[in-house]
């Protein structure tokens, strides 16, 4: 009897110890690439080429980050990326939620055809050339709205929000309509407050997509420097460091004292990665609670 009780008490301890060991291993595997990139970004470029940089820089320097911001265009491009991310996310979430509420109503007779049209866009695309001519005919070339309008509504995001709305009690919507409220009042007073988890999830998806986007700048706004985004400027900077001549000229503009401080493609790539990912890493903790709740959408059926 005594042996069985000890065994019973030891089993949870072994189980939790095994779980903690596995989770610690996952954390190390997940965090190491980012910490290694951070260490390389603060290490002298020519010293990095020797290898052996793991979690801490061997020779500290800020020259890699100075090289990223030395051109003068990066600061303006940063605020351009912030503007397109904020405006695109707010409008995208609001209009997508409004469309999702519309197609979720059973009394709306066109809900099925409209849903089908949006679903077809997930499987079929006209292609790059027709899209370019469409943007041109809409007079959006070299215009800020080219960052906002083309991706304003996503079919996938609309379906996710629609599914969440259908889980809400119908009695809440009916109570507002009994009091004389219309669909817009229902949407603002009931749908938006109760859909915070899924809206936060969709907002994070849209914000990450807007922040990381650079190809639309390359296609539609590359001829206007004042419309250049941070990601596009970093892509140009990264491509300019792929040859030794460009690296030497870039290093010369960052008050180098000798060959030891040479900016290398590896070091500048690490600095670019940190600069591009840092804003999203700052925002994510504030949305994590709603993000996890949104991902659990549909996992429990009652």
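^ Assign residues to that structure.
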């Amino acid at each position: 009897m005594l042996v069985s009780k000890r065994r019973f008490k030891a089993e949870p301890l072994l189980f939790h110890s095994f779980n903690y060991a596995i989770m610690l291993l996952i954390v190390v595997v997940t965090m190491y690439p980012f910490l290694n990139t951070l260490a390389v970004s603060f290490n002298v470029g020519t010293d990095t080429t020797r290898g052996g940089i793991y979690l801490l820089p061997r020779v500290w320097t800020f020259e890699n980050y100075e090289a990223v911001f030395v051109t003068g265009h990066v600061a303006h491009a940063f605020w351009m990326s912030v503007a397109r991310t904020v405006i695109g996310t707010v409008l995208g979430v609001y209009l997508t939620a409004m469309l999702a509420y519309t197609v979720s109503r059973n009394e709306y007779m066109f809900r099925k055809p409209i849903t089908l049209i949006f679903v077809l866009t997930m499987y079929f695309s006209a292609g790059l050339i027709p899209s370019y001519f469409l943007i041109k005919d809409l007079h959006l070339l070299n215009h800020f709205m080219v960052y906002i309008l083309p991706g304003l509504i996503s079919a996938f995001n609309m379906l996710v929000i629609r599914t969440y709305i259908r889980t809400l009690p119908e009695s809440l919507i009916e109570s507002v309509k009994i009091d004389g409220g219309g669909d817009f009042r229902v949407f603002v007073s009931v749908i938006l407050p109760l859909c915070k988890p899924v809206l936060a999830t969709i907002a994070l998806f849209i914000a990450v997509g807007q922040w990381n986007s650079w190809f639309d700048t390359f296609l539609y706004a590359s001829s206007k420097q004042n419309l250049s985004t941070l990601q596009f400027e970093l892509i140009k900077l990264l491509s300019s460091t792929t040859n030794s001549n460009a690296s030497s000229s870039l290093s010369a503009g960052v008050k180098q004292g000798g060959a030891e401080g040479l900016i290398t493609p590896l070091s500048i790539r690490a600095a670019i990665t940190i600069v591009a990912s840092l804003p999203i890493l700052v925002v994510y903790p504030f949305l994590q609670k709603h993000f996890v709740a949104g991902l659990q959408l549909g996992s429990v059926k009652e």
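Residues 2-41 form the longest helix (40 residues).
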